[in-house]
Design brief:
One of its GO terms (cellular component) is plasma membrane. The chain is an alpha+beta fold and about 190 residues long. It contains 6 helices and 6 strands; from the N terminus they run βββαααβααββα.
Length: about 190
């Protein structure tokens, strides 16, 4: 045969060294440059691909939240306990939540927690911000990344209107983490 590719299947002509190939799962291609064997994807590869598809799917969506409030303890459709409902509404912070959601802010976080998570994406806040409060540091990050139109600053929390802004912050953070890990490893190994 003058053909460059020759597909070996599991037949009586199969060489003894190829008997370990499983029928319809593995196959071997004989090529002028050498044999090529294809194996099924590993569990790790399947899991990684599944997680990537899930993350891509989640990033294309906008979150919606459902809060359930029990109207009474006796599980009756006709009974309504005002005191119990007021307690649940105040405990869950639903009034504030509704007010913020009406304003259109999908994400909120305390300044200290936000800074702790995203301080590495700005050269002015990494490794430590010493020019003011956590609120000032968060302002520096958001100004540097040009997200000022999508953000409002409260007394103790930052409010972000669009999930896309949050995803952009997460992507910037994820790009920097391997370099930070390498830096830490270098420091401790020396």
């Amino acid at each position: 045969m003058n053909c460059c590719w020759k597909l070996w299947t599991r037949t009586s002509k199969t060489k003894p060294s190829e008997k370990n190939l499983r029928h319809k799962i593995d196959f071997r291609v004989t090529h002028y440059a050498g044999d090529i064997t294809k194996r099924p994807p590993t569990a790790g590869t399947l899991f990684k691909n599944s997680m990537q598809a899930l993350v891509q799917n989640l990033q294309s969506k906008e979150p919606h939240y459902v809060r359930c409030i029990k109207p009474n303890e006796i599980k009756s459709a006709t009974a309504f306990d005002d005191e119990r409902v007021r307690h649940q509404v105040s405990y869950l912070g639903l009034v504030e939540n509704v007010r913020v959601r009406r304003a259109g802010f999908a994400y909120r976080q305390r300044y200290d927690r936000f800074l702790k998570r995203y301080k590495m994406i700005s050269q002015f806040t990494w490794p430590n911000f010493r020019s003011g409060t956590d609120k000032d540091a968060v302002r520096v990050i958001m100004d540097e990344k040009k997200f000022t139109d999508d953000v409002k600053y409260g007394k103790t929390k930052i409010f972000i209107r669009s999930p896309k802004t949050l995803f952009a912050l997460e992507n910037a953070r994820n790009e920097l983490i391997p370099g930070i890990v390498t830096l830490i490893q270098k420091t401790w190994r020396v």
